[in-house]
Design a protein that fits this description.
4-stranded antiparallel sheet, 4 strands
Length: 95
């Protein structure tokens, strides 16, 4: 088997869409940040429905981790959401 054949076999998508995708963002513990995150989610995941976030504040309450699992439809959708959330001034980390 040629090296080219091995490379093509190794390059496979990590996700098969649609799929359930867990998204976690950490940012400032403010109502505005949570609201903005929900607005960004709805923009990129229009069929989101009712939003139920798992919220975990930091020990001192300065930061909050927001977790949600939604049905992702494409890598482009995930990339666009990631770019917008990371650009938010109150975002500290996205996983």
């Amino acid at each position: 088997m040629s090296d080219q054949g091995n490379i093509e076999e190794e390059i496979q998508p990590l996700l098969t869409f649609p799929c359930d995708f867990p998204f976690k963002v950490m940012g400032m513990n403010t109502a505005a940040f949570e609201n903005d995150f929900i607005v960004m989610l709805r923009k990129h995941v229009p069929d989101l429905g009712d939003v139920v976030l798992d919220k975990r504040p930091s020990r001192n309450g300065t930061y909050v981790a927001l977790n949600i699992t939604f049905t992702a439809t494409s890598q482009e959708q995930l990339d666009n959401l990631y770019r917008e959330v990371t650009a938010h001034p109150e975002t500290r980390m996205v996983l």
